[in-house]
Design a protein that fits this description.
about 400 residues, alpha/beta, Rossmann fold, 3 domains, 6-stranded mixed beta sheet, 4-stranded parallel beta sheet, 10 strands, about 15% strand, globular, binds guanosine-5'-triphosphate, binds magnesium ion, metal ion binding, GTP binding, cytoplasm, GTP-bd, ribosome binding
């Protein structure tokens, strides 16, 4: 018999000054993450709190009330948008009787479900180990309290936690060694790819349509309406037309190609353990000759998504300006879901972007034309947009 879908309650802390609509958007995104992880979302709640309660993060009063409210609805999991300490997770579980997951734990679970290749599996396990290591103490304190041995030093609990820590550290070293080896394999593959073909990487917020654009450009790829559907980098060859300019009559009529790499998507508060563990996969982005930055133009949080993408690109070493900067093209995808005034407004806000619909092939010719410019050399310098630059502190 199939396992029943686990039901969850979602919560997020709303600090004074946090806008209601933003907190609700964050909860909606958390619901998408939960759905992508296989949960059914029973309810979403913003918990207004000025202070963080050090023991339970959200405060025991609000948590107890919530647990009572969902007690008869078959809810088994409590998923929190905030990053919690291990001891806080334990305290919340004890108080509510629900299994508690924080945002990082949820994203890690999705990555664990999706990882297919040896490299992706090792990268996700490394991130999991790094996440669990500082949390062991919380688990131990909890167990120790149950055993009534508070204050004992060098007792059986402490020995056990030292053993657990050592095991995790050993595993981290093994995984790092394995990943260094796999990185060398990847480098050899990269060197073995056809010479002279420009390499372009598809990057962007998760579920924006990167894989759909890979499919539109190369005929391959399996798009899915799930967050983090793609974990492994896939590189395919795209046909860019013939080397011939009908206006000038110049060109040798040779077919022109480039290599397009599809990559893992980004998200707000992408766990730093995952960014670090996916260093090698994301190396494909860093070393690409150009970036196609794909965004879901119909998403209400488009501008925030772009800021997250700009910041994550800088975090992995892709600067928007300077000698090392890669040419970038912003692809505003999913414009089939917008009305004409919205598209005109987008044109005003992002004049250099291509408006596209990857599923119907709209805008793909324009993208091909831009990619063709990469074949003889990089395109001309361009003006940077706000989302690419670091936030300036308010004066
Ligand atoms: N209406 C519409 N839907 C689109 C378009 N492009 C992609 N989609 C849909 O959006 C969903 C996500 O598409 P993907 O191409 O898998 O997105 P992705 O960026 O690769 O997502 P991850 O790999 O999960 O990060 C799928 O259901 C697609 O069919 C578009 O231009 N218009
Ligand atoms: Mg994808």
């Amino acid at each position: 018999m199939a396992e029943p879908t686990p039901r969850c309650l979602l919560i997020a802390r709303q600090a004074p000054g946090d806008r209601d609509d933003l907190t609700q958007d964050h909860l909606l995104e958390l619901a998408e993450l939960a759905r992508s992880c296989g949960f059914e979302v029973q309810a979403r709640r913003a918990l207004k709190r000025a202070e963080i309660a050090s023991k339970t993060f959200y405060g025991s009063g609000q948590l107890t009330a919530l647990a009572e409210e969902v007690a008869r609805q078959g809810v088994t999991h409590l998923i929190c948008d905030d990053e919690l300490r291990g001891s806080q997770v334990n305290a919340i579980e004890k108080l509510t009787g629900l299994i508690c997951l924080d945002r990082t734990g949820l994203i890690l679970s999705i990555f664990e479900q999706r990882a297919q290749s040896r490299e992706a599996k090792a990268q996700v396990e490394l991130a999991r180990c790094e996440y669990e290591l500082p949390r062991l103490k919380g688990a131990w304190t909890h167990l120790e309290r149950q055993g009534g041995g508070v204050g004992l030093r060098g007792g059986p609990g402490e020995t056990q936690i030292e053993v657990d820590r050592r095991m995790i550290r050993t595993r981290i070293s093994q995984l790092k060694r394995e990943l260094t080896h796999l990185e060398q394999v990847r480098e050899t593959q990269r060197l073995g790819r056809p010479k002279g073909l420009p390499r372009v990487a598809l990057v962007g917020y998760t579920n924006a349509g990167k894989t759909s654009l890979l499919k539109a450009l190369t005929g391959e790829g399996e798009p899915k309406d799930l967050l983090f559907a793609t974990l492994d980098t896939t590189t395919r060859k795209a046909w860019l037309g013939q080397d011939f300019d009908p206006e000038t009559g110049e060109g040798a009529l040779e077919p022109m190609h480039c290599l397009v790499a599809d990559t893992v998507g980004f998200i707000r508060k992408l766990p730093h353990q995952l960014v670090a563990a996916f260093r090698s996969t994301l190396g494909e982005v860093r070393t690409a000759d150009a970036l196609l930055v794909v965004a879901d133009a119909a998403h209400p949080d488009l501008e925030d998504h772009l800021k997250v993408v700009g910041a994550t690109l800088r975090e992995i070493g892709c600067e928007p300006e300077g000698v090392e900067a890669q040419p970038r093209l912003l692809v505003l995808n999913q414009v089939d879901r917008l009305h004409r005034p919205q598209k005109l407004d987008l044109k005003r806000r992002h004049p250099g972007a291509v408006q596209a619909c990857a599923t119907e092939g709209l805008g793909v010719d324009e993208i091909r034309l831009w990619l063709r410019e990469l074949v003889p050399g990089p395109p001309r310098p361009r003006a940077l947009e706000d989302w690419e630059l670091p936030e300036t502190a308010p004066s």
